[in-house]
Design brief:
Length: 249
């Protein structure tokens, strides 16, 4: 339990697995009321059971953020259910890695829509209430791929550089309203993210690399997010770039 997080209302997107799931648990453990969003309802229900064991009754939001109205809808539903939204964790994302020359642009378009445009839409939706109450925190999950670019990662990096740029511009627009914006940039984390890579060779290479080092665990990233949102009101952690100790780039 953390007194600065206790009873604050947090909405976590991409909460059905990986970093989002760990963040929902960590925020609930710190005393937050949580709304959990993703497409896989059964995974969210399983998480809801674990959150109830922590004494929190979560709001479960089954939602496909590729539907352009869903980002606004889940923010509105959270505000309607809990009365307000204090902490928005924009975590939902996909990573399609392949060389530009072979890229499936339809998939890349959906990656950019989810990783960037839906994050912009949920941030915009949260601003009205946060501005009115002069209180709020938006945490955007980017990546080391939003700070350095590598081959096979052009589309993903375009999305995550987009998140980093958006977050800093947003911070400078809203800081006078006492709204904080933090961006989290993890290196390799042991989650399901890599399972959706369509390019067999790239997938094999990155999985072999992941197996060769001690990856971050989702809980490590969740701890960084809790650290951001549990600071005193005058402290804004703008950015956390974190890698496995064993990761060079
Ligand atoms: N793993 C890493 O190495 C790493 C490193 C740096 C940054 N990140 C970032 O961390 C974030 C979380 O990823 P993760 O590693 O925890 O992977 P993950 O376990 O695959 O989680 C991705 C989450 O996004 C949700 N999602 C995917 N498509 C969606 C859609 N159309 N609508 C709504 N939700 C959707 C998934 O839920 P459903 O499938 O149930 O919808 C899932 O909960 C991502 O933004 C990723 O880019 C990951």
């Amino acid at each position: 339990m953390h007194h600065r997080v206790k009873d604050r209302v947090a909405l976590i997107t991409g909460a059905s697995s990986g970093i989002g799931e760990a963040t929902a648990l960590a925020l609930a453990e710190a005393g937050a009321k949580v709304a959990i969003a993703a497409r896989r309802g059964e995974r969210l229900q399983a998480l809801a059971g674990r959150l109830r064991e922590l004494g929190q009754e979560p709001l479960v939001l089954v939602s496909d953020l590729l539907d352009e109205h869903e980002a606004q809808r889940i923010v509105a539903d959270t505000e309607a259910h809990f009365g307000q939204l204090d902490i928005l964790v924009n975590n939902a994302g996909v990573m399609y890695l392949e060389p530009v020359a072979e890229a499936d642009l339809g998939r890349w378009r959906r990656m950019l829509e989810l990783n960037v445009l839906s994050l912009i839409a949920s941030s915009q939706a949260a601003l009205a209430g946060m501005t009115k109450r002069r209180d709020g925190h938006i945490v955007n999950v980017a990546s080391t791929a939003g700070r350095i670019a590598n081959p096979n990662s052009a589309g993903y990096s375009a999305s995550k550089f987009g998140v980093v740029g958006f977050s800093e511009a947003l911070r400078r627009e809203v800081y006078q309203h006492n709204i904080r914006v933090s961006v989290i940039e993890p290196g390799l984390v042991a989650t399901e993210l890599r399972e959706h890579i369509g390019h067999a060779e790239v997938k094999k290479t990155i999985n072999a690399w992941a197996d060769s080092l001690r990856q971050l665990q989702p809980e490590d990233v969740a701890h960084a997010i809790v650290f951001c949102v549990s600071q005193p009101a005058h402290v804004n952690i703008n950015e956390i770039l974190m890698r496995p100790t064993d990761q060079e780039r």
